[in-house]
Amino acid sequence: MQRWLSFGASEIGPAHIKTGKPNQDSWASFHHADCDVLVVSDGMGSKDYSEFGSAMTCRAVDHAVCSALISRKTLDLGEPGQAAEFFDDIRDTWIEGIAPLTSSNASATCLFGLRAGDGALWLGMLGDGMAVAILNDGSVKLLKESKEEGFSNITKSLSEKTQPADWMTMSVPEKRCKAILLCTDGVADDLVDEEGFARGIVDNLCKLPVVSAASDAANMLIDWPTPKHSDDKTMACLFKREYPDE
Known about the structure:
By secondary structure, this protein is α+β, with helices and mostly antiparallel strands. It has helices at about 15-20, 50-70, 80-100, 105, 185-190, 195-205, 210-220, and strands at about 1-10, 25-30, 35-40, 110-115, 120-125, 130-135, 140-145, 170-175, 175-185, 235-240. The strands form 2 sheets. Strands 1-10-9-6-7 form a 5-stranded antiparallel β-sheet. It has a 5-stranded antiparallel β-sheet with strand order 2-3-4-5-8, covered by helices on one side.
């Protein structure tokens, strides 16, 4: 028997401690009868209330997933019509949820991992950070915004103008995947070996009870080794665990 479990951690960055601002990152996991959802969001640091934007991002993704599965019993982000409806639902739910705030003071990025029960795991990204699928054979598939092209100082985020084409997606077969790891840019931008980091998290933490895994992840972020790091840091993992058949 298999179950998909999750853990995560988010720690405020030294820069926000110094200025008295809150942690503007958020993460959440949702485990339903037919699907599992993991979301990580980075509130844009230049916005006054981005912590509300990032928290609402997590709820908006889960709402969009549940709405899609209720209406059509499936969610295939490789089908353009379904994907467009799904991403528009995230945007519209987010806009409604943050009101009376707007993207001018509460914008946030979005990373998600989704198991919809149809044999595929989907990863999605709007903005920066990284989403990683770790397969059973140890190989890694990485979804990450390229900053080598275009304007590297401009990060996409949820707003009234967000369109389906702004999202990046990737799918992997559920039976071949052991875990999904999502990290905000406060973690991802400091990594030299993204694949090695992802494998290490899965190999070392996913075998622990989820409470212990979350505690170890939090300690890792608190004791982050990069000198002069300043950003909030968040990572979350959705992983498969095998149980003996009853």
